[in-house]
Amino acid sequence: MLRRSFPIVYARGVEASARFYERFGFERHFQLPPEGEPGYVGLRRDSGELAIVSDQWPRDQLGLEPGPQPRFELFVYVDDVDTVIDDVRRVGVPVLREAEDMPWGERVGYVADPDGNPVALANARAEA
Question: Are residues 47 and 94 in the same domain?
Fold first, then answer.
């Protein structure tokens, strides 16, 4: 039985990537080493989990070179997509696509994480 699973993001800068995801409500629950510059950060938001690890990890542990960008896309649900996009734009986060209403009933916009991976910010559209 599946008890727990989570994606692990390979990042050039673990701390910068962890701070990026903390902007969207993720909170640190684990860090290695516990003090100083992390090589691994575990994040949680409600029942969702995400981990950030140095992109050196797959080289050292698996003999694999991380692939070209983008390496993944992550959907993060927020209360107000337009406000969040405006907030992160003000601090220099690249906006890949402005928020728009989608045919499946969500409002979705895209920003880039510190490594250039697309992060969809979404919420259900309010019905008129």
Answer: no
CATH number at residue 88: 3.10.180.10
pTM value is 0.84
- Residue 63 is classified by DSSP as -
Tell me the pLDDT tens digit for each residue of 11-47.
999 999 999 999 999 999 999 999 999 999 999 999 9
Question: How confident is the model at residue 73, as a pLDDT?
Answer: 85
Range of the domain at 20: 1-63
> How big is the CA angle at 75 (ends 69 and 80), to the nearest 5 degrees?
125
| Three state DSSP letters for 76-122 | EECCCHHHHHHHHHHCCCCEEEEEEECCCCEEEEEEECCCCCEEEEE
Instruction: Specify whether 57 is located in the same domain as 38.
Output: yes
Number of domains in the chain: 2
C-beta separation of 76 from 119 below 8 A: yes
